[in-house]
């Protein structure tokens, strides 16, 4: 296991690297028309860092497997490979880099992984909305 301090350092180095990539995306003419690009990139970065990243700061098949299991979506090795290939556009690469991840999240194609993450994000927001105490029913609510 990583010691906490080294792990913290690794995380902050990873985050710096991801911030640099976000900067590049912000100035990429390809994404000029994208609404709220900066806040989307910030959100995608947080999401990416929720994965167990390998030492290169990329998502490997085990990282993908663990993340999906956390979401209650266990997948077979073959399904995972398919999902990765769909994101990176080839089956020869066995990791998803942050660039691949952003291209997926911002791209027009609906990769399965993108749909899962978007859906999970929406589910989370829904949960947060319903945190307050339930509204007391009033007479005007009665049918």
From TrEMBL:
Tell me where in this chain the EF-hand domain is found.
Answer: 39-74
The topology of this chain with respect to the membrane is: Peripheral membrane protein
Q: Is Acetylation among the key words of this record? A: yes
Q: Where in the cell is it found?
A: Cell projection, Phagocytic cup; Cell projection, Ruffle membrane; Cytoplasm, Cytoskeleton
Q: Which InterPro entries match?
A: AIF-1_EF_pair (IPR049025), AIF1/AIF1L (IPR042433), EF-hand-dom_pair (IPR011992), EF_hand_dom (IPR002048)
Gene Ontology biological process terms in this record: actin filament bundle assembly; ruffle assembly
Is the keyword Cell membrane in the record?
yes
Q: Which GO terms describe its cellular component?
A: actin filament; phagocytic cup; ruffle membrane
Q: Name one GO molecular function term.
A: actin filament binding
* Keyword annotations of the record: Acetylation, Calcium, Cell membrane, Cell projection, Cytoplasm, Cytoskeleton, Membrane, Metal-binding, Phosphoprotein, Repeat
Protein name per its UniProtKB record? Allograft inflammatory factor 1
What species is this protein from? Astatotilapia calliptera
């Amino acid at each position: 296991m990583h010691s906490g301090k080294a792990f913290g350092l690794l995380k902050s180095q990873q985050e710096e690297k991801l911030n640099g990539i976000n900067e590049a995306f912000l100035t990429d003419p390809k994404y000029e028309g994208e609404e709220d690009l900066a806040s989307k990139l910030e959100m995608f970065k947080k999401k990416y860092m929720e994965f167990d990243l390998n030492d290169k700061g990329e998502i490997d098949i085990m990282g993908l497997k663990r993340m999906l299991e956390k979401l209650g979506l266990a997948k077979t090795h073959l399904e995972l490979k398919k999902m990765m290939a769909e994101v990176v556009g080839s089956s020869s690469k066995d990791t998803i880099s942050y660039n691949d991840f952003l291209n997926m999240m911002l791209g027009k194609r609906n990769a399965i992984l993108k749909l899962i993450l978007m859906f999970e994000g929406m589910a989370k927001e829904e949960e947060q909305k319903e945190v307050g105490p339930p509204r007391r029913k009033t007479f005007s609510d009665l049918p």
